[in-house]
Amino acid sequence: SFCIGSQSANLNSGDKCATPMGILNSSCSGEEEGVPEEEEEEEVFVCGESTVSYQSYDYATVQIGSQCWFEENLRSSKLNDNTDIPNVTGDSAWASLTTPGYCWYNNDYATYGAIHGALYNFYAVDSGKLCPAGWRVPTDDDFKVLELFAGMNSGELNNTGWRGIYIGDKLKISTGNETGFSALFSGRRFIGGAFDTVGSNYFVWSSDDSGTDGCYRALSSANTYIFRYFYYKDLGYSVRCIEE
Asked: What is the pTM of this model?
């Protein structure tokens, strides 16, 4: 037993702590013998409410049907194994790449990159390491699931060119953004390395290719459709991530 002042009590077995006031019925760490510390609750990820922290940036997320997407374009300068992606500014240097590369529209982060994210060639996409762990660059089929949810006729899904009248408008901030995809007209880096169409067109890679060309989607301010096509892998398009 032990006493402090005029009070006494029995001691439990185990470590005790001696203090100037007497012997305490617990270890000096403050834990009573046999009583575990309370574990911190793990934060639960809720798509559409939680953000994804990746390489010093917090990405907003959005639930669209059964899919969870980044609500904004990727802006990473590294692969998910921490390998640097070269920021290639010169037009001819960009056009000759056969390895991963990224850039900011017009090589101007402050004006464009901070809003629109980065533009990547398909070789960066094809690395399989652009998105954080548990996420990936969407496949062609992932985009088809999104398009079907937005109301596209299933008979149009495998077509190339402009498809799905009014469906594109459901993905664009400028026309209601019904799905929450929040596409901006981020432009592209085109043949020869030239930049064009910021403010009027959106181009975004999928992870599929035809062997020689990468598969992508495009939206335009001039119509209500979604464009599906395969084109040169050295072009610079936006990238989104989707949860695995």
From this structure: 0.84
User: 205 - beta bridge partners?
Assistant: 216
* b/e code 202-235 from CB counts within 10 Å (16+ = b): bbbbbbbbeeeebbbbbbbeeebbbbbebbebbb
Residue 138 has pLDDT above 70, yes or no: yes
Which residues are paired to 228 by β-bridges? 161, 217
Distances (CA, A) of 44 to 133, 134, 213: 16, 15, 39
Q: How far, CA to CA in Å, does 71 sit from each of 12, 137, 173, 184?
A: 56, 13, 11, 11
Tokens (6 digits) for 224:
């209500």
User: Could you please report the per-residue DSSP string of 151-193?
Assistant: T--GGGTT--EEESTTTGGGGBGGGT-TTS--B--EEEE-GGG
pLDDT tens for each residue of 210-244: 999 999 999 999 999 999 999 999 999 999 999 99
Residue 107 DSSP symbol: G
Distance from C-alpha of 241 to C-alpha of 128, rounded to nearest angstrom: 11
- List pLDDT tens digits, range 156-184: 999 999 999 999 999 999 999 999 999 99
